Amino acid sequence: MKILKKFIQMNLLLFLSMTLYIIPWIPSLMVENIVNFTIMLSYIITAFLVYQMIYLIYHQQKEKKIYRNTLYTFFFLVYIGFFAIIQIGVSSIVGQYVSSYTFGKKIFYVYKNSEMSYEVSIKEKYLPIRSLPLFTTGSTEISLEKRDRYLYAVGENINEKIFDLKENKSLTDQKY
After folding, report:
1. Banded model confidence at residue 82, pLDDT cuts 50, 70, 90
2. CB-side exposure of 75: number of CA atoms within 13 Å?
3. How far is residue 147's CA from residue 152's CA, in Å, rounded to a whole number?
């Protein structure tokens, strides 16, 4: 039962690190350092849990054989490596920060995503994450401009009204 408990704890830590990596954090060095430190710490604690599981398995065996423990160790380390490889694969999905714009109390971010298109998102009000994309364009680089009370995405052959700063709502899904 203790081994199952350690295995569940190990999986929870691995899924925590994966979740922290998938969340679209704001481009802040402090936030990125905290998240990366937490991910590294979760892998270190997971390795310690593997050690504890192997230790428990070894002491529960009636005939203590080294090749069994070696296989268990190999299995668990490959399991952790599998999560690390998936996490590296997920890194190709994470967008690359291009620039940020501040209009009043609102902070907007322009990211270049994995499909080489540009997207605009806004910082969430209370959490240090960014929202789902408000506007996505093709491979044309965009910048943001404020005109009257509206925010425009401007680029080559692009001049789209994307956000109403006074009403505090997105205009990309509406006809205008």
Report:
1. very high
2. 9
3. 7
